[in-house]
């Protein structure tokens, strides 16, 4: 079957700014969207891990998806995070995202329940059978306790609506096996900013990125260089940014990236509990890294 690629390049897993009254700060959020688009971000991923989707209310989650689609207005693809460990709720969010005009959905593996590989297929097929927009799987074992095996990707790739995976298992060899098994039936995006060029080198289409919140143009350029055959330039930029990548993950995402945005003048506000402020020691380390990059 022929499947359409949702995007190539760097998509930003965008943060969610909050006001002092703990509401979504749409005034700041719209400026963030415009900053991303102006700096060549290739897709907007809303309500993901970095967007603190796990602490958004149902109404907030849906409104943020709808608002993002309307504000972006077709300039780049909008991918809505709609995953849950409850299949019925993941389906509800996915159906809403499709009606709201999202270009695709990003659906994380069911967390905490820790289903079997058979259960993963049943979960994803149940949603994909009922939502007629492309689905990107999201594999992040460090957070969910689940890992999608290459053979399971092969089975999942048979569904016409399951088009890609955001792969954050840190195992490039496993990704190679997945690409070998699935071929053109499943696109792969790096889910780790430290592995963009390595993942592109084995066939990935791009990255779904935390780093893009801070340096969208440069993250886009890592991919653009590679696609234009400028492999050394891509690798050099990946290497140049690795200290910033490390700093953005020195504590649980999105604690460092939202802290960095606040330091740099984008008032994204606080983190919702159970996430808390960075430790004073790591805060100073983050500031030093940002200074070292000329901010």
Number of strands: 8
Q: Which CATH C-level class is it? A: Alpha Beta
> What's the helix-strand series?
EHEHEHEHEHHEHEHEHHHHH
Q: Give the biggest sheet.
A: 8 strands, parallel, barrel
Structural class: alpha/beta
Measured on Cα atoms, how large is the radius of gyration?
18 Å
Dominant shape: globular
Give unreliable regions as ranges: none
CATH homologous superfamily heading: Aldolase class I
The CATH architecture is: Alpha-Beta Barrel
Write down the oligomeric state. Answer: single chain
Q: How many domains?
A: 1
* Mean pLDDT, all residues: 97
Helix content: 40-55%
- The CATH topology turns out to be TIM Barrel
Strand content: 5-15%
Number of helices: 13
Trace the largest sheet across and list its strands: 1-2-3-4-5-6-7-8
Head-to-tail CA distance between termini: 47 Å
Task: Give your account of this protein's structure.
The structure is a single chain. The N and C termini lie far apart (47 Å). The chain is 45% helix and 13% strand. Strands 1-2-3-4-5-6-7-8 form an 8-stranded parallel beta barrel, surrounded by 5 helices. The chain is an alpha/beta fold and 295 residues long. It is globular, with a radius of gyration of 18 Å. Helix 9 (216-227) runs antiparallel to helix 10.
Q: How is this structure best summarized?
A:
By secondary structure, the chain is of the alpha/beta class.
């Amino acid at each position: 079957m022929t499947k359409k690629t949702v995007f190539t390049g760097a998509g930003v897993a965008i943060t969610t700014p909050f006001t002092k009254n703990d509401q979504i700060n749409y005034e700041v959020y719209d400026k963030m969207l415009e900053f991303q688009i102006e700096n060549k971000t290739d897709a907007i991923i809303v309500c993901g891990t970095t967007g603190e989707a796990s602490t958004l209310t149902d109404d907030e989650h849906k409104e943020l998806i709808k608002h993002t689609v309307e504000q972006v207005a077709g300039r780049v693809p909008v991918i809505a995070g709609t995953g849950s460990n409850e299949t019925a709720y993941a389906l509800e969010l996915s159906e809403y995202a499709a009606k709201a005009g999202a270009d695709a959905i990003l659906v994380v593996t069911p967390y905490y329940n820790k289903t079997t590989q058979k259960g993963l297929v049943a979960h994803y097929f149940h949603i994909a059978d009922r939502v007629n927009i492309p689905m990107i799987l999201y594999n992040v074992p460090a957070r969910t306790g689940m890992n999608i095996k290459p053979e399971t990707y092969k089975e999942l790739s048979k569904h016409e609506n399951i088009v890609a995976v955001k792969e954050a298992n840190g195992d490039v060899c496993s990704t190679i096996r997945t690409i070998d098994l699935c071929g053109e039936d499943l696109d792969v995006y790096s889910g780790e900013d430290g592995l963009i060029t390595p993942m592109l080198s084995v066939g990935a289409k791009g990255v779904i990125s935390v780093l893009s919140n801070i340096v969208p143009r440069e993250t886009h350029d890592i991919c653009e260089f590679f696609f234009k055959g400028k492999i050394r330039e891509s690798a050099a930029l990946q290497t140049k940014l690795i200290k910033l990548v490390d700093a953005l993950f020195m504590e649980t995402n999105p604690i460092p990236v939202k802290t960095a945005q606040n330091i740099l003048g984008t008032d994204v506000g606080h983190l919702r509990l159970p996430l808390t402020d960075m430790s004073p020691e790591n805060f100073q380390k983050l500031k030093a890294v940002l200074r070292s990059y000329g901010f």
